[in-house]
Amino acid sequence: MKVLLVGSGGREHALAWALAASENCEALYCAPGNAGIESCAECVDIKGEDVQAVVQFAKDKDIDLVVVGPEAPLVAGLADALIEAGIDVFGPKADAARLEGSKGFMKDLCAKYAIPTAAYGRFSDFEQAKAFIEKQPGNVVVKADGLAAGKGVIICQNKQEAIDAAEEMLSGEAFGDAGSEIVIEEFMDGEELSYFALADGKTILPLTSAQDHKRVFDGDEGPNTGGMGAYSPAHLITAELEEKIIHKIIRPTIEAMAAEGCPFTGVLYAGLMIVNGEPKLIEYNVRFGDPECQPMMMRLQGDLLEILQAGAQGRLNEILGTVTWSDKTALCVVMAAKGYPGSYPKGTPISNIEDANEVKDLTVFHAGTALKDGQLVSTGGRVLGVTALGDTIADAQRRAYMGVDKIEWPDGFCRRDIGWRALAAEKAA
Ligand code: AMP
Ligand code: GLY
Predict the structure, then answer these.
(1) What total number of domains does the chain contain?
(2) C-alpha 100 – ligand 2 centre gap (Å)
(3) Which of 11, 37, 264, 411 is most solvent-facing, going by the fewest CB within 10 Å?
(4) Residue 101 domain-assigned?
């Protein structure tokens, strides 16, 4: 099979690494990819959002399956255009990608189909938003409706902060059009967990769990980021909780999307808050998580290409029960450019990745790298994902940091405590 992967981050490197390992993968292209992805795919200089260029490339190369990594091309209608051209695609059409692309759409769907989530209101008028905030019994979270690169969520410590956030978003100052409508919701107190399931419109194939670390500094301090590290499975997960997540959240959502005339195909990523043992939905993403995908791909036993193709072709029922996961824990430490998530320099030199890759059961996934005159350099905020498999969370963590410590990148930094909640739980057990 000839496969085209769309995207350029650490998630796509992990997907490319797993797809290239498939016996059936005869050619793998990545648009646009990065310096790490070059080692397992042929990178082509096309951006995912350039829908027409992606479709044309897929036609020219006779691609059998397109796998879309990030959300923006999906929200922009890449899957629709590929399907129209008769090309199989793993990822939802634009109307189903609204689960991530519009927080208001997601919240209204939850309300209509009784899917547990935080109480909320949707606003495009500031005075109404302000009145709603003033009426709330506790703290609120203010969110831009549209895509804002993970930054459109403000957790407010008091009412004035919430009013200011609402005003800034609705004025267009903060996130442009993405903030012209906002969602204001109840603050939920609990521990976060991410759960992933495949769907092909009808059949659900549950995958596994992971836990991300969204804050930039150790101990979950500082501003939110795209994710500074993740491990899988999440320590909170039990068979009972997994059952609740599928029956109370994932299944009703997939059924609701079908009933609404926008069946969901692809990977559904549920961001959940576990409150007193009960899962509540924080958000949906319509793609794999980054960096959650990196540890997940290290644990996956089975042929990713076959799995994603079955998803794209509506045949998940044929492979139910065949996807298994290593019992080990995988843990990914993200190395980011100093300054991230604020402004940071680009083009800074990185070396010794090969030494890190020699650690057993460890892979350095590239997220934002390029080769410049033979030197590996950074091209983004999150740059590497050092991912290791271990018998326990402590073992996986120790090995991941062994890899981190071999890498020479004076302009980079990482958190030193990825997996800390799980480690504390493992020690206590
Ligand atoms: P989102 O982009 O919706 O995932 O939000 C980013 C982060 O904000 C989440 O991972 C949570 O840590 C936090 N968050 C969002 N909504 C809530 C909420 N209603 N209560 C508490 N935390 C929230
Ligand atoms: N790591 C968070 C995300 O992929 O949205």
Answers:
(1) 4
(2) 11
(3) 411
(4) no
| Domain-embedded: residue 98 | no
Q: Choose one of 92, 108, 134: the last residue of a domain.
A: 92
pTM for the model: 0.94
- Centre of ligand 2 to C-alpha 148, Å, is 12
- What is the best residue among 11, 68, 192, 290 to mutate for testing ligand 2's pocket, by most ligand atoms within 8 Å of CB? 290
pLDDT band of residue 277 (cuts 50, 70, 90) is very high
Specify whether 221 is located in the same domain as 298.
yes
* Domain termination residue (choose one: 186, 205, 230): 186
Residue nearest atom 8 of ligand 1, based on CA coordinates = 153
Each residue of 4-29: pLDDT tens digit? 999 999 999 999 999 999 999 999 99
The 3-state secondary structure of the chain, one letter per residue: CEEEEEECCHHHHHHHHHHHCCCCCCEEEEEECCCCHHHCCEECCCCCCCHHHHHHHHHHCCCCEEEECCHHHHHCCHHHHHHHCCCEEECCCHHHHHHHHCHHHHHHHHHHCCCCECCEEEECCHHHHHHHHHHCCCCEEEEECCCCCCCCEEECCCHHHHHHHHHHHHCCCCCHHHHCCEEEEECCCCEEEEEEEEEECCCEEEEEEEEECCEEECCCEEEECCCCEEEECCCCCCHHHHHHHHHHHHHHHHHHHHHCCCCCEEEEEEEEEEECCEEEEEEEECCCCCCCHHHHHHHEECCHHHHHHHHHCCCHHHHCCCCEECCCEEEEEEEEECCCCCCCCCCCECECHHHHHCCCCEEEEECCEEEECCEEEECCCEEEEEEEEECCHHHHHHHHHHHHHHCECCCEECCCCCCHHHHHHHHHC
Residue range of the domain that includes 172: 119-186
80-129 pLDDT, tens digit per residue, is 999 999 999 999 999 999 999 888 899 999 999 999 999 899 999 899 88
- Ligand 2 centroid–CA 278 distance in Å is 22
